[in-house]
Design brief:
This protein is of the alpha/beta class. It has helices at residues 2-23, 37-50, 63-72, 86-96, 125-133, 159-169, 183-192, 226-230, 250-260, 262-270; strands at residues 26-32, 54-59, 77-80, 101-114, 122-124, 150-154, 178-180, 196-201, 209-210, 212-214, 237-244. Strand 1, helix 2 and strand 2 form a beta-alpha-beta unit. It is globular.
Length: 277
């Protein structure tokens, strides 16, 4: 009987120890921008290697999805490739009595993707806007072949969609623009379609060519590179953000501090994005 009690006590201690080891793990959830998924996963991977007691879960879905998750309390960090909207701030305020915390964490050049076989290699901001709004529908109108233009873009929950609409299209998108669930899908579509055009983060431009973008008719065309995005000569440049309900504490603060440190910022260039400085 005594032996049985000792065995039970030993088992209980093991269960308690295992339970403690699981509960002592720090878990951080990150959700939102599809543009930032590659970057956030790399940050998480390197950080977890250095801090084995921390688990970081990164998922996409779009900037709007991430901010909605922040508002409903299902994520610690919302990644967004656009600034938070006033309506989203109001929802945070109503639910948590805070205005949220905005943390710029990287820079990105928004590329305009062209098929490699397309004879067009540069466009003005105005021309790009007119193409995606449906005012320009044939490549011959911008110096290319006599062929209709096929448009590919992001869904409206995407921060990339919002930024591109506000800063390039400046009106509604053409009804003929086919929306796809992620930047990689847009790149893949443009890769297969000679007379197509798409847009998305510069880090995704594989198998397609970047369009040289001109501020206006008199300006030179500029490619999205580390240098042109850093010095803002590339016309379609933006910050990438992390949003939190309130000031970070504990392991979340440690993770964000590391992201903003020279070590965390150095990782940005390895995956095709650009550091803050």
């Amino acid at each position: 009987m005594k032996t049985t009690k000792i065995k039970l006590a030993a088992i209980l201690l093991v269960v308690m120890a295992v339970g403690f080891s699981f509960t002592s793990l720090d878990k951080i959830t990150v959700k939102g921008s599809d543009t930032m998924v590659i970057l956030s996963q790399k940050w998480a991977e390197v950080y977890m290697q250095k801090h084995p007691g921390t688990t970081i879960q990164v998922t996409g879905g779009g900037s709007g999805v991430g901010l909605a998750a922040l508002i409903n309390g299902s994520t610690d960090i919302a990644n967004s490739s656009r600034p938070i909207k006033a309506t989203e701030v109001e929802k945070l305020k109503a639910r948590y009595s805070t205005l949220g915390v905005e943390i710029p964490c990287a820079k990105d050049g928004l590329s305009v993707y062209l098929n490699k076989a397309n004879g067009v290699s540069e466009l003005t901001i105005k021309q790009i806007g007119q193409i995606f709004s449906g005012k320009i529908t044939n490549w011959k109108e911008v110096g290319g072949a006599d062929a209709g233009i096929k448009l590919y873009g992001r869904e409206n929950s995407s921060g990339t969609f919002g930024f591109f609409k506000d800063n390039v299209v400046k009106t509604d998108f053409s009804p003929s623009c086919q929306t796809l669930p992620g930047t990689a899908a847009i790149v893949n579509a443009v890769k297969k379609d000679k007379y197509s055009i798409g847009y998305g983060g510069a880090a995704y431009a594989e198998g397609v060519k970047d369009c040289k973008v001109k501020k206006d008719d008199k300006s030179p065309g500029v490619y999205p590179t580390a240098e042109t995005i850093k010095n803002k000569t590339y016309p379609i440049t933006r910050y990438l953000y992390m949003y939190l309900k309130s000031r970070p504490t504990g392991e979340t603060k440690a993770f964000i501090d590391w992201i903003l440190s020279p070590e965390g910022q150095k990782i940005i260039t390895s995956v095709g994005y650009f550091p803050l400085k």
